[in-house]
């Protein structure tokens, strides 16, 4: 009887421990956007590859760096968590050409000490998880305590993470920056960003944002709502690329954090969300965040992801592309010397 009683007590303890232990889902950092969002869907086991994939990958191989690197400390997106207690700061338009979206408030919750990306884009993102709200800014500046930005847009943090071309009101030839979004293809600047907490958890559960100089002129595909591409025959912004899911990552000198990022590129894929001067994916900019650093975890161009040959990537089928886009950039960025695609 003592044995039975002891066994029963042990079962109770095990059940209690199981009830108290967090599930793997709750232990993982919360993703941006709804679970049904395009950004949060893993790729199917055998996705259709575009017939132009080899040609497009060949274009990307002509880049100086050849392969895909990581923007983690420059030209990326700092994300600041805010709340109802965060002081509201007036954000004035920084330009007469570019515009804030109509629903972007005059005042936004910006923490003291917040720093935009120091490079030319000066992106800044704010998220309020309790209020389910996000704010994007491009060319954000703090001039002696007064904030300015070229663009500003406010949206549902738990929504689809996709802007509508029609709802934005952008017309062919315009820049989408004239209507609020902070990325030229008209996607949220936080979409696809590899966040520090996700990387540290060992599992990223969403698609990864990417960019290249070889994005198509006047052509884009969902989830992009526009394009600033300049390359005739290039890859439409919004296209999904995938790192070969059968690729054995152990053959490369990757840190644990770099393996986590590479696995997401295999499982969820990467999405072209911008024009850039190289082939890149984006990790969260940790500007001004004490105790957080990518040092020793993710290398940008000196090793890690960039050592994976470009031949291991493929472009998935591009369907229902839209033939409109920005013409403003054509005035100062030359077309790439692409040959007609096969």
Task: Explain what you see.
A six-stranded mixed sheet has the order 1-15-10-14-13-16, sandwiched between helices. The protein has a four-stranded mixed sheet with strand order 2-5-6-9, with no helix packed on it. β7 and β8 (146-149) form a beta hairpin. Helix content is 16%, strand content 20%. By secondary structure, it is of the alpha/beta class. The protein has one domain (32-331).
Gist of the model:
This protein is α/β, with parallel strands linked by helices. The chain has helices at residues 2-20, 24-27, 53-61, 165-168, 196-201, 256-267, and strands at 69-71, 79-81, 88-93, 107-109, 124-128, 133-138, 141-143, 146-149, 151-156, 208-212, 215-220, 235-237, 240-243, 270-275, 280-282, 313-315. Strand 7 (141-143) and strand 8 (146-149) form a beta hairpin.
Low-confidence stretches: 1-26
Shape: globular
Quickly give the structural class.
alpha/beta
The arrangement of helices and strands along the chain is: HHHEEEEEEEEEHHEEEEHEEE
Count of separate DSSP helical elements: 6
Helix fraction, binned, reads 10-25%
Tell me how many strands there are: 16
Cα distance spanning the termini: 79 Å
Main pleated-sheet profile: 6 strands, mixed
Say what oligomer this is.
Answer: single chain
Overall mean pLDDT score? 90
Beta-strand share of residues: 15-25%
- Please state the CA-atom Rg, rounded to the nearest Å: 22 Å
In total, the number of domains comes to 1
Strand order of the largest sheet: 1-15-10-14-13-16
């Amino acid at each position: 009887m003592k044995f039975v009683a002891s066994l029963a007590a042990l079962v109770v303890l095990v059940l209690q421990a199981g009830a108290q232990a967090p599930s793997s889902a709750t232990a993982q950092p919360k993703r941006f956007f709804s679970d049904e969002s395009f950004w949060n869907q893993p790729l199917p086991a055998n996705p259709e590859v575009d017939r132009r994939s080899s040609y497009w990958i060949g274009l990307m191989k002509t880049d100086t760096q050849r392969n895909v690197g990581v923007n983690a400390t420059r030209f990326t997106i700092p994300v600041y968590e805010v709340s109802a207690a965060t002081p509201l700061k007036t954000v004035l338009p920084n330009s007469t050409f570019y515009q804030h979206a109509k629903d972007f408030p005059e005042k936004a919750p910006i923490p003291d000490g917040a720093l935009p990306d120091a490079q030319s884009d000066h992106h800044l993102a704010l998220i309020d998880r309790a209020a389910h709200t996000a704010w994007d800014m491009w060319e954000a500046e703090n001039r002696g305590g007064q904030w300015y930005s070229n663009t500003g847009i406010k949206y549902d943090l738990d929504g689809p993470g996709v802007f509508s071309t029609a709802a934005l009101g952008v017309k062919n030839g315009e820049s989408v920056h004239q209507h609020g979004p902070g990325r030229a293809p008209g996607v949220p600047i936080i979409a696809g960003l590899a966040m520090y907490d996700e990387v540290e958890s060992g599992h990223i559960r969403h698609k990864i944002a990417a960019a290249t100089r070889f994005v198509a002129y006047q052509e884009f595909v969902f989830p992009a709502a526009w394009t600033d591409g300049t390359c005739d025959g290039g890859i439409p912004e919004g296209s999904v690329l995938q790192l070969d899911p059968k690729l054995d990552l152990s053959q490369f000198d990757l840190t644990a954090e770099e393996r986590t990022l590479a696995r997401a590129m295999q499982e969820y894929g990467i999405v072209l969300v911008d024009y850039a001067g190289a082939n890149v994916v984006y990790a969260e900019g940790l500007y001004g965040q004490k105790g957080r650093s990518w040092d020793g975890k993710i290398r940008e161009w000196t090793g890690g992801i960039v050592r994976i040959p470009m031949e291991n990537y493929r472009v998935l089928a591009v369907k229902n592309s839209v033939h409109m886009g920005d013409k403003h950039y054509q005035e100062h960025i030359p077309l790439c010397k692409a040959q007609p695609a096969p």
